[in-house]
Amino acid sequence: MTAVLFDFSGTLFRIESTESWLRGALAEVQVELTEAELAEAAQALEAMGALPGGADPSWLPEDVASVWGVRDKSAELHRAAYTALSRHVQLPDDRLHDALYERHMTPAAWGPYPDSAEVLGALRERGVGVGVVSNIGWDLRPVFREHGLDPYVDTYVLSYEHGIQKPDPRLFAAACEALDADPRDVVMVGDNRRADGGAAALGCAVHFVDHLPADRRPDALRPVLDLVGGAGPRANGTAPRPEK
Question: Keywords on this record (predicted)?
Fold first, then answer.
């Protein structure tokens, strides 16, 4: 393998808990809830699937259903879908819905899995190209920079910047092209069998991990190093410069 593509949420990074997410938004708008009220609101938000990167909605309201399947094609659709879900939960201040959405885009809302830095660093040492291919409606590059993982990533291919989303093979093809890699020499690593499995249409190998809390998934990425084997430096002797 000459390159590895990674999904973002549930693969390299994990979003904070719904309760932590709500606490952050409450602090931002300076609104207080009792612990009982906070727990109740967090439970309702989780049931609605209002936290991007968190649990899926238990049901889709009519005002969300029409955009849900294409929410990652643009920043506007992504925001509209998730703020609409949160608005189905009664909160003490209307400003919280936008504050919640803004909160989830901050580096503080995300944490890398325990083995993310180790695996990405090892791939860099072996001269293996690394791309991040994500269905998302906002720029995740600051999250990688804040957590010190950006130097290990050669290219980011984000659905909202291309107007297409996984499993569309064109998104994976764009990443392979950016890495100058033959898809047959690339492995896609992700947690969604339908979305990330779309890379197989190009001839990529696919490796799945489980979308679990970080403390329950300490080393699921390490088998990727066995998949790439002892890959050496690139033909030109250099790795591509990280895309900023």
Answer: Hydrolase
Of the ranges 4-18, 69-83, 185-199, 228-242, which one carries the lowest mean pLDDT score? Answer: 228-242
The beta strand positions in the chain, using DSSP E, are 3-6, 13-15, 110-112, 129-134, 155-158, 186-190, 205-208
Residues 194-212: what's their mean pLDDT? 98
d(CA 79, CA 54): 15
pLDDT of amino acid 229? 81
> Token match 């967090």: residue?
42
CA distances in angstroms from 162 to 70, 75, 136, 144, 178, listed in the order given: 13, 11, 11, 20, 14
Supply the DSSP string of 149-170, one letter for each residue: -GGG-SEEEEHHHHT--TT-HH
Q: With contact defined as beta carbons under 8 Å apart, do 46 and 54 qualify?
A: yes
Measured in degrees and rounded to the nearest 5, phi and psi for residue 134 equal -135, 140
Q: Which CATH entry fits the domain spanning 3-14+111-228: 1.20.1250.20, 1.10.940.10, 3.40.630.100, 3.40.50.1000?
A: 3.40.50.1000
Question: What are the structure tokens assigned to 229, written together?
Answer: 């084997």
